[in-house]
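Good morning,

Attaching, inline, the backbone tokens for the sequence recovery test we're adding to the shared suite. The designed sequence is right after.
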């Protein structure tokens, strides 16, 4: 082989070696995709968080509006503004639910309030609206199908423990984690969760020890675990068997509602 061919072959190997980590991360991001995570990114792009995730955490005052402020994400008061997920979709598309426009005094109050919800119906596709609906439903636990009471208990426990702060609303994932294999903290809704948690017993192991014996023996996993900025905390015996079960049931309910194969949709 000529010197030039050797040089070309060497450059090819270098390029492939350099590209592999990027391709691997792109694949992990693809596997992590879910409606809530897409909705979160879209909300950031469209400026939704400017009003609904206010600076300092205190709801923004909105003189003239019914409740005097703009509802923030995770405030738990969606039912004060909306009757069902259909109205949630309408407020995203039209800027207000259709039922509001049917009453004269409500129309007048809406016209007089200082800050009004923009209408995104002409800006976003149906799929994008669906993702935003999923985000709000996940953030507010609003309009979800009836579920096992153990899952509801698990959701409340997870929020008290701060699990969504790292794993995202309803386990949407995608929060940055420098040094980790994918560059993010995995959630519960995408394919990555299936690779990390094979069954209930392994989920319990993760929560109790902060790791998985099955994965600890993998040298690639060990390399990135040693370098990632954020690691899974070990809760040890601070959680009871019933509490662990409730957390596990919550992850399964979240996957049923918002995972890649979920059927939860808005009604049109």
């Amino acid at each position: 082989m000529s010197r030039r061919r050797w040089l070309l072959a060497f450059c090819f190997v270098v390029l492939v070696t350099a590209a592999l980590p990027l391709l691997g991360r792109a694949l992990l991001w693809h596997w992590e995709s879910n409606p809530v995570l897409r909705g979160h990114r879209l909300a950031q792009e469209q400026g939704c968080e400017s009003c609904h995730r206010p600076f300092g955490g205190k709801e923004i005052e909105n003189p003239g509006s019914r409740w005097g402020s703009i509802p923030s994400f995770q405030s738990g008061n969606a039912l004060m503004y909306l009757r069902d997920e259909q109205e949630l979709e309408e407020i995203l598309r039209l800027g207000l639910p259709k039922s509001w426009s049917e009453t004269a005094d409500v129309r007048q109050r809406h016209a007089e309030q200082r800050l009004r919800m923009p209408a995104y119906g002409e800006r976003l596709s149906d799929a994008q609206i669906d993702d935003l609906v999923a985000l709000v439903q996940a953030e507010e636990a609003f309009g979800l199908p009836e579920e096992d009471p153990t899952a509801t208990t698990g959701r409340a426990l997870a929020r008290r423990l701060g699990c969504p702060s790292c794993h995202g609303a309803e386990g949407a994932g995608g929060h940055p984690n420098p040094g980790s294999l994918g560059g993010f903290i995995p959630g519960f809704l995408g394919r990555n969760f299936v690779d990390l948690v094979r069954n209930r017993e392994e989920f319990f192991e993760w929560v109790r020890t902060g790791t998985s014996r099955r994965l600890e023996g993998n040298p690639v996993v060990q390399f990135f675990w040693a370098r990632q900025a954020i690691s899974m905390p070990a809760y040890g015996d601070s959680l009871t068997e019933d509490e662990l079960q409730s957390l596990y049931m919550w992850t399964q309910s979240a996957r049923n509602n918002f995972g890649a194969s979920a059927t939860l949709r808005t009604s049109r």
